[in-house]
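The records we work with from here on pair a chain with its fold. These numbers are not coordinates but entries in a learned vocabulary of local backbone shapes. To see the layout at work, look at the sequence and tokens printed below:
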Amino acid sequence: MKNELEIFNEIVDELLKIEDSVPVAKLGAPEEMLEKFDISVSDDAMSDKDLRAVLGKVVLNTPRTASRSFFNQLFGGRMPAATLGELLSVMLNISMYTYKVAGPHVGIEIELINKICQMIGYPAEESGGTFAPGGSMSNFMSVIMARDHYDADIKLQGVSKKLIIYTSAEAHYSIAKNATFAGIGRDNVRYLPVNDRGQMDAGLLEEMIIADRENGAHPFLINATAGTTVLGSFDDIETLAHIAKKHEIWLHVDGAYGGSVIFSEKHKHLVKGLEKADSFSINPHKMLGTPLSCSMIVTKHKKQLVDSFSQDATYLYQGNTDDYNLGKTSLQCGRRNDAFKFWSLWKSVGTKGLESTVDQLYHLADVGREYVTNHCDYTLYSFEESTSVCFNYKDIPADKICNALADHGKLMVGHGSFKGQQFVRFVTVNSRLTETDIVRFFEEFEKFTDSHIF
């Protein structure tokens, strides 16, 4: 491994340098890009020298999500301690289903789950959780728990009733996919309209629940969103929790994007009432800068988590109590160690450091919004509770600007739409950013846009 680690260090050194000097990789068309590399695999071995060359070429031509010019996705940046934890996890190459194979890392995962449950106010003895391969699968686990909580026989006999899910029209697209995976059916997902700030219309929700029951359907899950993917809006959890309790329906809060506000005294009011939800998912690989993927789901009903996902396997669970057999509460069998990198970060900076990270990202969004509102060529579409800054510039189509910026290797920023209005979606989730970087983005954005014809 020593030779390979030397190659790794050489390539990483080049990557860190190029991220600063050329922050956006020029991709071009997929066919054109792939012609640059020898991506074919062959029967014969490759020399270390040739392998080093092709690895370096691929890495240096990959989108640079940690650069200060990347604002395209709801993740970005590179927290050093978290990256260290990830690299060590790769070297250890353990699986997180039993104590026998994962050792102290089982305790580390349990500690993180217990701490998140404590922070949101879940009862210590009754709550639990796990790590899932991304926010979509965390949401899927909530669907399965809610389904089985509504009707325990489904686990054995399958779905035989018309089960109904309620969610925001601005919710993550995984809700529809998960309805398919769980046997619910996409046609049985009810999309609630949203107000002008992108929040679910809770007033209409109760009417829909009553109407569905009168028509012989079975409402079983309300999915609330803490940080929608476009505007970054937060649904009114307190009100939704009241409706869920009244009608005995499972309430899940999808906090993949905005759930990290639980670390901030200043911003955690955005998830007021979270302790009343039955389950909650959070992605530290977004606002907290942990390497992909790092997604957690917790629930105040640990027994339901076990009932929905536990399956005996004597060839695997040998010795120790099930308290340390994490495979009994996870979606997968073989599972990579996603807890260690988040734990490394948390140990390094402390809870106060994570709070500072969240507060800084919101401050940077404020800087972006202030810039937009103070310049007459811009129109702002987003709000102060979000780290998404949505805007238009001189009424130029947002998709054309964003695509041109990427094609020319200038900036990586995405576009979105809300109620038929398209705009640039500029997100501040990179913990490396400063106020100077925000202003520089807009200056480069204007310089490029003004020099091109759209």
In short: The first strand starts at residue 70 and ends at 71.
